Structures are given as C-alpha cells and as structure tokens.
Amino acid sequence: MGNCLLSIDWDYFIQIQTENWGSYTESKKNLTDLWYKRFFQAKAQGRNIQNSFRLSPEVDTFWEKIKRFFHFGNGTKTYVSDSHSLSYSIAESHGLRTVYLFDSHADLGYGGISSLNFEINCANWLGKLFRDDRIDEANIIYSPFTTEKPEFFRAMNNTFNVRYLSFDDLSSGIDVGAVHICRSGAWTPPWLDERFEQFVKVSGLPYEITDCPERKWNTENISLSEQISYLMA
Fold first, then answer.
1. Three-state secondary structure readout of the chain
2. pLDDT at res. 2
3. Which of 81, 123, 220, 233 falls 20 to 30 Å from 205 in CA-CA distance?
4. Distance (Å, rounded) from C-alpha 127 to C-alpha 110?
C-alpha cells in the first residue's frame, strides 16, 4: 500500500470572478438553496451569476499531470464526497502519514491553533490530523485562484510539518494509498456538477461515493413564492 493521501478539492479548478465568499457550514441549505439565493440576488442587479465563475482549462489535463508524479497501485482506494472533512477519516483508517492537498484552501483551521479544538469539519480537518498525531507531513498545492497565503497560517506552519508546493516542486514516484475527491458544494456551483462527475470518471480510478447528494439546478419556472423562500435562505 502507498503511504500518502492524495486529497483534491473541486474548488481548486474554479475561479470566482467577482464574489469572495467566506466560510459556510455544510448543509442542504448551503449546498443548493444558497446558490438559488445568490442567483436571484444577482438577477435583481441585472447579472447572471453563472458568468461570475470560470472553470480552469487545467481540469482537462490534471490527471495526466498527476500521474507523472503519483503512483496508484491496485490497492489504492478512491473516495468521492461533498465534504472535505472525510479526508480525516480516510487518512486515519488507512494509516496514511503524509497528505498531498490540491485546494483553494489550506484546511488547517482558521483562527489559529484554537480552531483545532472544534469538531472535525471541512475547514480544519488537516490541522486536526496533525494535532491528533495522525500524520507527519502535509504538502499543500494551492489553486492558482486562491486568495489565501501561507503566512495566514503562521501558527500552524511553526507547529507542524507543512510545506507549500507547486507542481514543479513535486518528485516522481509518490506512492498513493488513497485518493479523496471532494465537491465542496457550498463553494462550488451546482451547474458545474456534471463537469465534476466527468472529472472523477476521467481519473480512471475505481471510486466509492460517500454522502455526495445530487443537486438539481433549474432556474426556469420557479414561482414567486419559491423565489422568496430562496431569498430568505
């Protein structure tokens, strides 16, 4: 078995043109209803929110690049979920002591070391792995669209073995014990879900889906009462 977890967030590929949203709890409301709210708010301003998002062309070459550096054996397990917090239990259950993370967010915990006192969630799972002595090393490859900087996590960087890398810094032959691909639906729009599904399938890796509910996106024929309900979400 390989000795690292390769964890990939779908938001790594998505550029937000105008909005810069913060942290959200992962709930049905934020996975779907909040996106309709954003749509109608933008529509009231004469904008189509779908024009505010761009999918990076890197999505079409990502797996080809990944397979230059990472080795996937017959025992490599691949998991697909909505929440990135699943990476904690994957690393723990497989005994994987190293993480390679491709993401727009570091997920080390926001608000310093004290943020690791909260329960495991999508924002702190990587920091929790360190604090609970589940991993020895994390390698973060930021999206070109991230608004974060490594210095935002100075306390974690000084406490744990965290490295911030680019593709050019990777070496070949990295053995992978498990792969986690997450959708992060509170941050990634539902109208790109079909492209997400294609991205997962193009990997060529057999995968298991865990708690990644289908999202239906249809802005036609929505009643006024439904619009009001979404706007109050």
1. CCCEEEEEEHHHHEEECCCCCCCCCCCHHHHHHHHHHHHHHHHHCCCCHHHHEEECHHHHCHHHHHHHHEEEEEEEEEEEECCCCHHHHHHHHHCCCEEEEEECCCCCCCCCHHHHHCCCCCCCHHHHHHHCCCCCEEEEEECCCCCCCHHHHHHHHHHCCEEEECHHHCCCCEEEEEEEEECCCCCCCHHHHHHHHHHHHHCCCCEEECCCCCCCCCCCCCCHHHHHHHHCC
2. 64
3. 123
4. 10
Closest by CA position to 65, among listed 174, 183, 180: 174
What is the rounded CA–CA span in Å between residue 82 and residue 210?
8
Reported pTM? 0.92
Q: Give the mean pLDDT of 24-53.
A: 82
Per-residue pLDDT of 101-160, as tens digits, reads 999 999 999 988 999 998 999 999 999 999 999 999 999 999 999 999 999 999 999 999
- Residue 157: phi and psi, rounded to 5, are -65, -35
Please tell me the distance from the alpha carbon of residue 68 to that of residue 212, in angstroms, as a whole number: 29
Q: How many CB atoms lie within 10 A of CB 57?
A: 9
Q: What are φ and ψ of residue 104, in 5° steps? A: -85, -10
- Whether residue 32 is predicted with pLDDT greater than 50 in this model: the reply is yes
User: Please, how many CA atoms are within 13 Å of residue 33, restricted to the half-sphere of its CB?
Assistant: 15
Residue 145 burial (CB count, 10 A) = 15
